[in-house]
Amino acid sequence: MPKKLRVKRLSRLTGFDYNNLLILTLFAVVSIFPIIFIINNAFKPLSELFMFPPKFFVNNPTLQNFVDLLSVMGESLVPFSRYVFNSTVVTISSVLLTIMFSSAAAFAFSKMDFFGSKFMFKLIVVSLMFSPAAVSITRYLVISKLGLIDSYAALILPQVALPVGVFLIKQFMDQLPKELLEAARMDGANEWMAFYRIVIPNVKTAVGTVMILSFQSVWADADSSTLYMISEAKKTLPYFGATLTNGLTTSVANQGASAAIALLLFVPNFIIFAIMQRSMIETMVNSGIK
User: Fold this and answer.
1) pTM of the model
2) How far out from the chain centre does Cα 281 lie?
3) How do residues 84-111 score in pLDDT, each as one tens digit?
4) Would residue 31 count as lying in a domain?
5) 69 found inside a domain
6) What parts of the sequence cross the membrane (predicted)?
């Protein structure tokens, strides 16, 4: 039997489409390009960083960018460890609070019947269309009126409201049968016990996805430090990375150090996603997002 006929027959028997495999492989290769670029960029000498036309791969790899970064760290008025500490505290606090509030709100919308619930959930869905830049002025006014300027709360609280987190977790909770909660209530469990001991363990993949989305959003956020922080000692690591070149890609000064810190900022994102990628895939499949 010819090879092509054998492949087609195998595809029919297994239900597997090799054309789709080829398309998905191409998409996967393209999606890896930014990662390869960040890694190569961190090891490019200054001459290659400003080469025209630009080169995707590094020709003469060097560690000078990391040496320059260490030099900049030593000259900084605020210790580099302080920026790392601030980013770690803000990120962990934001992620934990986001998971807590998103899951609690999703539980209320999914399993409780109260006045205006459908309208309020529609507002949350509509808010998905707004980018952070569209609400930056409103956020600043609210934080200013609350007297939170130059406090860690200004970096954490705006990140807690994650509409996509409420939406994803609710989609999973909607699939849980009401009989499961009714049985728990008959056994004496109150709403909080049912929520933490029954509902959350069954939607942990959605919670894992929300954790990834929240972590990536907070860890890379430099704008909040720029807008809300006055004290340099309370600003975060992405802000420090942005100040190396004053946000200008055409600036020659510290461009190598900026490329090096971009790689350092990327590594935690990659590790978190590598650990939690199964949760994200299962969430996207089961939530109806294609």
Assistant:
1) 0.81
2) 15
3) 999 999 999 999 999 999 999 998 888 8
4) no
5) no
6) 21-43, 83-107, 119-140, 152-173, 194-219, 256-276
